[in-house]
Amino acid sequence: MREAQSLFRAIKTLFCIIAILIVTLSFANPVLAQEVYWFPHTPLIDGDDVKGDNSAYDCPPPRAHLYKCMFHGYLYGHWNEEGSNTPDKRHEDDGKRIGGAITPRCPPSKPNCSDDEKQIVVVAVGFSNWTKEICADQGPGTYQLKTDPPDAAFCGGNPWSFYWKAHQSEDVNKHIVFVDCAYIGGIAWFWQNDQRPLSGMTKGMYSNCNDVLRAWPAYAGGPLDPSQVQVVLIKTSDSGERTSPNYPLIPLPHSQGKFTNCLSSSPFHACILMGEIAQITRNLFTPPPGDNYKPFNNVQQVFVHSRISGAYAKPIHGESPLNPEPYAYESGHAMKWLIQAQVDDVNNPGSSSFPGPLDYNRHDAPWMDWGAYMWAADTRVPCENCPIPGTANIDHPPLTWVQETSAHEPLPFEFCESGQQCDFQAVSGSGATQHPDNTHPSQCGRSKVADEMMYFFCNSPYTVPWFTASRAGCPHVQVPQNRCDERLLGPN
Predict the structure, then answer these.
(1) Which of 150, 373, 469, 487 is the most exposed place for a label (fewest CB within 10 A)?
(2) pLDDT of 81 strictly over 50
């Protein structure tokens, strides 16, 4: 009996010591106590129904305009588990393992470099919204190939951009070299192979990106080599303009029972976009025949991003036919289905017919998943009760996109002046071609995107090991507050 009592006291004492250590470490290290903001998968929601059948959501007027109500439950979640926001276990485990293996490397030109010279190269590819949000306003032959500091490496000092904020943060791994290969006009069609140069370019998109890497200035760790790229960030779409190479944008059917799956022959923009981005991911490893760029053979992770709101673009008025709603929202479906296609291809090799092979174990394409989810239904429904981007135990203001004064009408471009929070670029073009835009984010809107991305990469279990300086989190990066820095309010 005495021996049993002694054993019980010893076990009780051990548990007390462990509990004290856990509490002590939690207070001593704010990273350990930090709440995880982003779940492994980002949902497609503008409501709170996770079942995918709208059973928990009030869809009659005045909320009938919600995309959650317009697009019924069968369009949510994965093909095989409608409405689910739970990642596939194998895909999740592989993503964490792959992310944990991303480490700084020496450039090929200096294989015996010091630790300080080792790099993790992150490249963004995509279209105009992406270059504005990621870094600057990069057009063909501009910005990245300049060698005057701080243009190439630090986004020209643009304080609203994701790359600039990452460079300035003490929480972000200083070995990361952020490269912007997204371009104004770089819609998904141009990224299908390397034989489609943009107007003003002499080379295709991938070869041009190779040139950007090779021309990277020495003061910022250049030149860089395509083999150094370990992470790629993708965000693109097709515009819907009535000029070549665009095709007519066709929305997904809005009523249940009319749509079950994307096929290679599907005319819907979301299906076409899914196939295009699948091809972009394959192109990173294996350029199509005839292309002459050096592929990014060592890419470990790809993060795909859907669009911000397109609610203020009004193509019926002849304004902004640049992928307005519902296509901006539907791009999220394309991303989710693309990820599921890779999950299916890995779990059942060879089973995926469209959008084609994506198995990262066979080196068809890199492992991929969501980046930050940035869509919200303008100011009317800023994501009611949704678990992402806000959760019940984290004070996250609902994400909104502001561009109006009353009656949900877009502001005229002259009105986006000092003192107005204008989340979209007021005008596009210049001179005789100048016209209202309301599609591309302004400095204010770009800052919102950058804040969401900073928090995502600081908290995603797939990115924390390589993105953060501590390999554990970003204690100084705040939950996004859905507002602009006052310095950014002004003419756009």
Answers:
(1) 487
(2) no
